[in-house]
């Protein structure tokens, strides 16, 4: 029996173990060591995960795609019953099915059987709610037990990233670890050195931990609401003066974990009633077209692609032919920054809070270690680097640093 490190992320997942005196991430999908945190159920209820799940949806295979599964931890959704094919499952069961397949693939790839795990977790699953935070960790522990892990422990994701970075340094440093993932932004200030790397107990080296529930999916949602959903009727007026079209439908359609809620006859009936009272009913026709054809995830994928494009381009054009022939929408980097300025500002504010907790000035930080896909967003990156302007910026493995650090922690705890 073997220990492993499991980074179950909002967007991507890794699982690795210690092998040949080094941490190694297992191949989980072909030659890829990362796998999207997505699961697809066809109408028989058979699950497929990762890129294969996304491909099933894109190819139009009848069924249901679920993504950003981690987002339900710490919410009431975790115990809700949802229909998948002919089955009715709790969201916790859906996560268990996904992680069980990840575990099985890693065991096949490595030839090991895993019964002990260090699970990554954000600093806060839920902002300002210690009870919700505890319930989220308890839920994740119960899920891990249910798929065969007998010993389950946790490590903060930014601390795991620090352990990965620490392997590369040759002198003592004060490092700010910024992990901006799909669902949360997490920060740790840690004292690291080659000598300290060998220690099992690192509690005294952790100077501050903080985090906020803002991540890549929040930037997707905000970009969608700002630039795409108005084309479907969001913020458009009703005939009755002073009223807008109800906004809840659009917030669900812009949120990965809520899209499937809209695919009901009841919701479509409600929207048809709204359409009759809308000043621009043609916009609601587009919304109904999307829901009738269950194209919500297609729009979400397009928004995510536009967000990624805007890390390197000034403008990204989204083809919306599937909604209406000839329809498209251009997103500019400036508009994206404007839509999401409040999110990036809150991320920067949390770094200031972390520095105060550590009792440090910005100039006391030697290195800024960046990991997580959302650190590539230019205005997010600036919000972080501007708080420690004299620190050396170090690029971590965007999707693998946390998982590698969790493997290091698993070796320390269970070797």
How are the SSEs ordered, and which strands pair?
Blueprint: E1 2-8, E2 12-19, E3 22-25, E4 35-36, E5 38-42, E6 47-49, H1 50-58, E7 63-67, E8 81-84, E9 87-90, H2 91-110, E10 114-121, H3 130-146, E11 151-156, H4 157-166, E12 173-180, E13 185-192, E14 206-212, H5 216-227, H6 248-253, H7 265-277, H8 281-292, H9 296-309, E15 315-319, E16 328-332, H10 333-339, H11 341-358, E17 367-371, H12 378-385, E18 392-395, H13 401-414
Parallel strand pairs: 1-10, 10-11, 12-17, 17-18
Antiparallel strand pairs: 1-2, 2-3, 2-4, 5-6, 5-7, 8-9, 12-13, 13-14, 15-16
Helix pairs in contact: 2-3, 4-13, 5-9, 7-8, 11-12
Number of strands: 18
Give the overall average pLDDT.
94
- Judging by the overall fold, what is the CATH architecture of the largest domain? 2-Layer Sandwich
Task: Provide the CATH topology of the largest domain.
Answer: Nucleotidyltransferase, domain 5
* Fraction of helical residues: 25-40%
Structural class by secondary-structure content: alpha+beta
Termini Cα gap: 11 Å
Tell me the number of helical segments per DSSP (H or I, 4 or more residues long).
13
CATH class of the largest domain: Alpha Beta
Output the radius of gyration: 22 Å
Shape: globular
- The total tally of domains equals 3
Proportion of β residues?
15-25%
Report the sheet with the most strands, covering strand number, pairing sense and barrel closure. 6 strands, mixed
Q: By CATH's scheme, which homologous superfamily of the largest domain applies?
A: ATPase, nucleotide binding domain
Uncertain regions: pLDDT < 50 for 5+ in a row? none
């Amino acid at each position: 029996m073997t220990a492993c490190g499991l980074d179950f992320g909002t967007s991507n997942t890794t699982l690795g173990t210690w092998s040949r005196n080094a941490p190694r991430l297992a191949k989980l999908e072909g030659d890829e060591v990362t796998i999207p945190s997505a699961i697809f159920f066809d109408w028989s209820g058979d699950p497929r995960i990762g890129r294969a799940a996304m491909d099933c949806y894109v190819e139009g295979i009848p069924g249901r795609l679920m993504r950003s599964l981690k987002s339900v931890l710490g919410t009431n959704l975790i115990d809700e019953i949802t229909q998948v094919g002919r089955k009715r499952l709790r969201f916790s069961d859906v996560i268990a099915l996904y992680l069980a397949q990840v575990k099985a693939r890693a065991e096949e790839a490595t030839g090991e059987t895993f019964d002990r795990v260090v699970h990554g977790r954000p600093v806060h699953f839920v902002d300002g709610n210690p009870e919700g935070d505890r319930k989220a960790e308890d839920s994740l522990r119960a899920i891990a037990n249910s798929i065969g892990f007998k010993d389950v422990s946790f490590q903060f994701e930014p601390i795991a990233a620090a352990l990965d970075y620490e392997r590369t340094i040759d002198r003592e440093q004060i490092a700010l670890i910024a992990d901006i993932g799909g669902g949360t932004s997490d920060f740790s200030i840690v004292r690291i050195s080659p000598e300290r790397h060998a220690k099992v107990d690192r509690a005294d080296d952790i100077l501050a931990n903080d985090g906020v529930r803002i991540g890549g999916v929040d930037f997707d949602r905000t970009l969608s609401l700002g630039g795409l959903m108005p084309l479907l009727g969001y913020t458009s007026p009703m005939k009755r003066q002073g009223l807008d079209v109800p906004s809840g439908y659009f917030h669900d359609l812009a949120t990965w974990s809520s899209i499937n809620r809209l695919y009901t006859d009841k919701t479509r009936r409600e929207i048809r009633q709204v359409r009759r009272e809308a000043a621009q009913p043609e916009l609601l026709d587009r919304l109904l077209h999307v829901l009738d054809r269950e194209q919500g995830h297609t729009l979400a994928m397009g928004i995510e692609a536009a967000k990624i494009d805007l890390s390197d381009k000034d403008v990204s054009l989204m083809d919306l032919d599937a909604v209406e022939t000839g329809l498209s929408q251009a997103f500019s980097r400036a508009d994206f920054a404007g839509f999401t300025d409040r999110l990036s500002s809150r991320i920067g504010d949390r770094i200031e809070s972390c520095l105060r907790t550590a009792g440090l000035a910005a100039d006391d930080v030697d290195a800024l270690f960046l990991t997580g896909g959302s650190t590539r967003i230019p205005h997010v990156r600036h919000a972080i680097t501007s708080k420690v302007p004299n620190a050396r910026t170090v690029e971590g493995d965007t999707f693998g640093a946390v998982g590698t650090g969790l493997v290091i922690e698993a070796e320390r705890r269970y070797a």
